[in-house]
Write a structure and sequence with these properties.
By secondary structure, the protein is mostly beta strands. About 5% of the residues lie in helices and about 20% in strands. It has one helix and six strands. The strands form three sheets. Strands 1-2 form a two-stranded antiparallel sheet. A two-stranded parallel ribbon has the order 3-6. A two-stranded antiparallel ribbon has the order 4-5. The termini are far apart.
Length: about 110
Amino acid sequence: TFLFGLADGRTIDAGVGGNDSRFINHSCEPNCVAHEKYGRIFIYARRLIVVGDELLLDYGFQSDAPDDAQANAAYPCTCGARTCRGTMVRTSCRPTDLTRAVEPRA
């Protein structure tokens, strides 16, 4: 299930009345980034995406597990990126980078 946590504490579940964003997979080297605006999630390109490219986000899961090893093992990553960190859990040294998104043109 694809979930987005909003700043106000609500959660958007793309599997329940969601749209095609639920098909965006995880990668440690994503080509998309998600932004929250007005209580909605918008997906932006981080780079030029050509026809046939898969859309990818860094899920950056947050875990309530008591230790990092337990959380990392619960959410393994096999994306194959050269910088794959081996887990879909956000690491403290790799904050979500929302500032590098390519803003849509008006």
